[in-house]
Amino acid sequence: REEFATLMINFDLHTETEFKYNQKKDILSIIREAIINSIKHSNSTQMNIILQEFPEHNKLLIKDNSTDYDENQDHSEGMGKTIIRQIANKYNAPILFYYQNGYIVQMNLPK
Q: Rounded mean pLDDT of 1-9?
């Protein structure tokens, strides 16, 4: 049995967009994959999930507070990242994965 640290998750939603059912499902799938990846692959204890509306798109920003990111380690696409990228491609949504004082997943979902 594996033991995982507790992950405190904060949601910050700033959008009036009425998402279609499939969009809601896909946004939740991205959030789920980001949470799983954070729990399995980092030492993070906190995650912020922000959905913010802009005139042309809604930005989904998911950031954890991990400190154990090793730039020299192989960060090839695993299942979680592949699933997230497939969802983003479905909507022609730019997607970024990067580390900046925590691991970040950022997607701009066109309106």
A: 76
Radius of gyration of the chain (CA): 14
pLDDT at 86: 96
Name every residue whose Cβ is closer than 8 Å to that of residue 75 and which is 6 or more positions away in sequence: none
- Each residue's pLDDT tens digit, 44-87: 999 999 999 999 999 999 999 998 766 656 556 678 899 999 99
Q: b/e for 50-78, b at 16 or more Cβ within 10 A?
A: bbeeeeebbbbbbbbbbeebeeeeeeeee
Nearest Cα to 109, choosing from 35, 32, 25? 25
Contact 95, 105 (CB under 8 A): yes
